[in-house]
Write a structure and sequence with these properties.
Layout lengths: L4 H6 L1 H11 L5 H9 L18 H11 L5 H13 L1
């Protein structure tokens, strides 16, 4: 997730569109990555608020993942909400 942050900063619209697709992927690791890499306060990383400029996409991604069958993805969504 840390390596996605420069992409999110430099190409926010394209990256958010990609994360929206990833939030529907059948692989749980890809879905978790969609949530984790857009966190505002990712531990050991500089605060990044670019996702707030794309709030509709941000909330759509979290909506896709909030009821995921994998608890680690649900926790990632909760962490995103806590970061807000």
């Amino acid at each position: 997730e840390f390596s996605m942050r420069p992409l999110l900063a430099n190409f926010p619209k394209a990256t958010m569109d990609l994360l929206l697709e990833w939030s529907k992927d059948e692989n749980m690791r890809v879905r978790r990555l969609a949530s984790e890499c857009m966190r505002i306060r990712l531990p050991w990383a500089k605060k990044q608020t670019v996702v707030l400029d794309y709030f509709d996409e941000f909330t759509a991604i979290l909506r896709n993942l909030k009821d995921d069958r994998d608890k680690s993805i649900q926790k990632s969504v909760a962490n995103n909400l806590n970061d807000l």
